[in-house]
Amino acid sequence: MIEAIDDDGEPFGFDRFERVLLDAGHLSAEGIKKTLLGSIRKFTRNRPPEDDQTLVVVSFDREAAGAEEVEAAYATAT
Fold first, then answer.
1. Minimal CA–CA distance to 60: which of 69, 68, 51, 52?
2. Rounded to whole angstroms, what are the CA distances from 13 to 3, 16, 18, 73?
3. What distances in angstroms separate CA 32 from CA 38, 39, 63, one per listed residue?
4. Percentage of residues in the chain with pLDDT exceeding 70?
5. Do 35 and 21 meet the contact criterion of CB atoms below 8 Å apart?
6. d(CA 16, CA 37)
7. What is the DSSP string of the chain?
8. pTM beyond 0.85
């Protein structure tokens, strides 16, 4: 996804990816997915990807998970 390019050959990149995630962080996993994919489609003007795309969005129930489990999941994901 970060390798998606616009009409000028500029990649979507990590900075844009991170900005979208930070802006969408309050949304559900489905909302984050839709926002990110929509941003990439807009950036590439809906051009089909040149390579495979993989996106994994993980959500958890903060009430059900203990602080240690949340911290461990975050550490594993980063």
1. 69
2. 6, 6, 9, 25
3. 10, 11, 20
4. 76
5. no
6. 12
7. -TT-B-TTS-B-HHHHHHHHHHHHTTS-HHHHHHHHHHHHHHHTTTPPPSS----------TTTS-HHHHHHHHHHH-
8. no
Higher pLDDT, 50 or 44: 44
The residue assigned the tokens 């911290």 is 71
**Model pLDDT for residues 61-78, shown as the tens digit of each residue:** 666 556 666 666 666 665
Tokens matching residue 78: 């980063």
Q: How many whole angstroms separate alpha carbon 16 and alpha carbon 18?
A: 5
Spatial CA neighbour of 5 closest among 44, 36, 35:
44
Structure tokens at 50: 């040149």
- How many whole angstroms separate alpha carbon 20 and alpha carbon 16? 6
